[in-house]
Amino acid sequence: MRLRKLLVVFAILAVTTTMLASCGGGEGEGKGVIKVGLTAPLSGVGAKYGQDCQDGISLAIEEINAKGGITVGGKQYIFELYPADDEAVPDKAKTNAERFVLENEIKFVFCPVATCINTLMDMNTRQGEEFLIMAYTSVPLYAQRSNPYMVTLPPPFSSYIPEFIKFAMGRGWKKVALLQTTGSYGELWGKTFKEAWTKAGGTVVAEAPASYYTETDFTAYIQKALAGGPDVLFVGGPSQPTAQVMKQARGLGFKGGFIVIDQAKMDEIADAVGMDVLEGSVGVLPVEDSQFPATLPFAKKYKDRFGRRCTWETVIHYSAFHILARAIEKAGTVEDVKAVRDAFNAEGVAILPGEEYPMQYSGINPATGALFMAGTASYVEKGKFVPLEMIEWWKK
After folding, report:
1. pLDDT digits (tens, 9 = 90+) for 57-102
2. Whole-angstrom Cα distance, residue 214 to residue 19?
3. Which residue, of 77, 115, 162, 263, has the fewest CB within 10 Å?
4. Cβ neighbours for 147, distance < 8 A, ≥ 6 positions apart
5. What percent of the chain has pLDDT over 70?
6. pTM as predicted
7. pLDDT of amino acid 287
8. Cα–Cα dist 366/110, whole Å
9. What fold does the segment set 158-290+377-395 form as a domain?
C-alpha cells in the first residue's frame, strides 16, 4: 500500500513538472530568455564587493522581467542571471567565461575586477564565441588596447586624481606613502597617481602595495609605509580590507590623512571603523550624499529590503543593466554581439536621467565603449562628508 501511494505521488510530480516545463512557468511563460553572466569575487575578502555588483544586476532584471521583459525582433524576452565566483582570480574568471559561452550560450558577461576583465579581453573576440564584456572598472583598459565588444561602466580613475591632489596639497601634505592594493588596477592607480603627485611638487616616501584580496594582516606593509614619515597614505581596494588598513594605521600611531581610491567606499569604511578613523580623508562621495533625485529613494528601498547600505556597485550595475537592455532591444537581436554593441551608440540608448535612475548617464564614447558617468569626490571634516565639484571628465 505504501509503495502504491509513493508511485502515485511520483506520477503526480512528474506530470506537474512536465506541465510547468511546457508552459515556461511564471512571468517567463511563452517568452524567450536572455542569459547574462556575472563572474566576480563572491567568496573571500572581496565577497561583499561582488555581492553588491550581483545585487544591482538582479534588481534590474527583477524590475524588467516584472514589466514583461523587452521586445526583440517582435518577440518578448526576459532575463536570467548566471552568477559565478572567481575569487578575483583571472584564471577562474576565464573558466567561468568559457562555461558561460560554450555551455550556457551566454552573449553578455559582467565582470568587476580589472585583472579578470583583462583575461576576458583575450577571449571575447574569438570567431563564433563573441561576447560583450560589461566592465566595471575605473582602469581605462580601452586606452591600453581596444576591444570592439566591451562597455565600461564607471568613470576612469584618472578623473579623480586632480581633485584628490588639489585637496591634499591644500592641506599642506607633500609626502605620500603608497599602500594601495596590488593587481593591474592597484598598480596602474599607483603609477598614475605617483606621476601626478610628483609633477604637482609632492614626494613619494614609500611604496608598500599589498593584496587586499588575500592579506588579512597589513601591519608589515603599514610599518614600511610609515617609516618614510608620510603626511598622507594612499590606500584602497575593496572597502572591508581598506577599512582594516586604515584602522591598523591609526593603531600604529598615524595621525595624517588618507587618499582613498575609488573602489573603496568611505561610507562602508565609516560603518566598519567609525568616522574618527576617516577624519582628513578624501575619496568618492557616498551614495547617500548623491545629488541625483532618484538615488536616495533607490538606496532606501535597497536598505529596507536587504538590511544593509546600498553601494555604488549596486547603483551602477543596476543602471547600466537598463542601458544594456535598451541596446539589445534597439539592436533587434539577442545573438549578434556586434549589433548590440553598436546599438549602445544609438541616440538616447546610453542616456539615463538622474530623476528616474539612481545613476545618471550622459552617453557613451562610441570608439572606446566608455559610458559617460560623472564622478564626485568628497572629504571628511569634523565627522561629515563634504562633496567636491562633480567631475564630467568626458568634457575635458
Report:
1. 999 999 999 999 999 999 999 999 999 999 999 999 999 999 999 9
2. 48
3. 162
4. 121, 124, 125, 133, 141, 369
5. 93
6. 0.84
7. 94
8. 19
9. Rossmann fold (3.40.50)
- Residue pointed to by grid coordinates 548566471: 82
- Report the share of the chain in percent with pLDDT over 90: 83
Q: Using the structure block, give the residue that is written with the C-alpha cell 561576447.
A: 131
Question: Contact, 348 vs 323, CB < 8 A?
Answer: no
CATH of domain 30-156+293-374: 3.40.50.2300
Of 186, 197, 374, 315, the C-alpha closest to 263 is 186
Instruction: Evaluate whether 30-156+293-374 and 158-290+377-395 have a shared fold.
Output: yes
Confidence at residue 160, expressed as pLDDT on a 0 to 100 scale: 95
Report residues of the chain scoring pLDDT below 70. 1-29
Give the cell for residue 50.
Answer: 561582488
Q: Is 295 in contact with 359 (CB distance < 8 Å)?
A: yes
DSSP states along 273-303: H-HHHHTTEEEEPPGGG--STTHHHHHHHHH
Query: CB under 8 Å to 370, separation ≥6 — which residues?
Result: 140, 142, 151, 152, 156, 364, 394
